[in-house]
Design goal:
TIM Barrel; 11 helices; 294 residues; nine-stranded parallel beta sheet; alpha/beta; two-stranded antiparallel sheet; IolE/MocC; Xyl_isomerase-like_sf; globular; IolE/XylAMocC-like
Length: 294
């Protein structure tokens, strides 16, 4: 079954919390529900205990989709990582989420506005071996808790390009699944259609943000930081950029799970209610045109 969710980053940014910092959580949730969104991922304004978060989501009749977790598996072993993740794991389990979104953040520069994308970290062969083994074990421990690890490739991190995704997928076990993020792979120079085709059986979560190609090219050519690129409008909601979502979705005909609208923008330039509604309408059309099962 396909369900459409949203990430609150469409309203309030997590890496630069002043972007949309004035938008209350209640406004975000009320607008999401009014649009037709069924569930939300976590953001910086969400309480992180089940007792505090459940009544808020229940009040808006929204489910918890999942939430980002930063791993540091290059630096620490998977057992230590799992203990660090325990509060997050318990929150997801208590509120019925089925996937945990993981992204390796050792030496990441995506949250540093002054750091050009060219300065992002690149793993050594030894680090790749440690990371892939650690990610596999971490995912296996999560599976024992009833959660599926979905790996979030991301600009500015050690897993950004299509080749890096391939190396991670080849070097990890079946407990590791892929979060297909159409916007990140497109901006990184990869092909979301090819990625969907290659890993259709291991894609367990989908983020849909679109890319404005002229801004993406300028960001790379002028070596902007990730955050400055976001402020310039490199990302938008599905259907408002250059990605062929119908072609992507046709490569995952058996997909069942959440498809999440996640397009970080400056809410002053891109009013969230207007843009998320646009993305929601476009996404529904693309899903139906691709023939995905509702």
């Amino acid at each position: 079954m396909i369900r459409i969710g949203a990430n609150p980053i469409c309203w309030s940014n997590d890496d630069m919390q002043e972007i949309g910092g004035d938008i209350p959580l209640e406004q975000c949730l009320a607008e999401a529900k009014a649009i037709g969104i069924e569930g939300m991922e976590l953001g910086n304004k969400f309480p992180r205990t089940p007792a505090a978060l459940k009544p808020i989501l229940d009040a808006f009749k929204l489910d918890l989709v999942s939430g980002w977790y930063s791993t540091f598996l290059i630096e620490r072993n998977p057992e230590t990582e799992f203990e660090a993740a325990r509060p997050h794991v318990e929150l997801l389990k208590a509120l019925g989420a089925k996937v945990l979104i993981a992204a390796e953040c050792t030496r990441t520069i995506h949250g540093t506005q002054s750091a050009p994308l060219s300065t992002r970290p690149v793993m050594t062969d030894a680090e790749w071996d440690r990371f892939n083994a650690g990610l596999t074990r971490f995912a296996e421990m999560l599976a024992e808790e009833g959660l599926t690890l979905v790996y979030h490739h991301h600009m500015g991190t050690v897993v950004q390009t299509e080749a890096e995704i391939d190396r991670m997928m080849a070097g990890t076990g079946p407990a590791v699944h892929l979060l297909l993020d159409t916007g990140h792979i497109t901006w990184a120079g990869g092909d979301p259609v090819a990625l969907a085709r290659r890993y259709s059986d291991r894609i367990a979560h989908v983020h849909t943000k679109d890319v404005r190609p002229a801004i993406a090219r300028q960001a790379i050519e002028e070596d902007w930081s990730f955050l400055n690129s976001v402020l310039a409008g490199v990302y938008t909601v599905p259907g408002d950029g250059a990605i062929d979502y119908v072609a992507v979705f046709r490569e995952i005909p058996d997909y069942s799970g959440w498809i999440v609208i996640e397009a970080e923008q400056d809410p002053v330039k891109a009013p969230p209610l207007q843009y998320v509604q646009m993305g929601f309408d476009n996404l529904n059309r693309f899903i139906d045109e691709a023939g995905l099962k509702r």
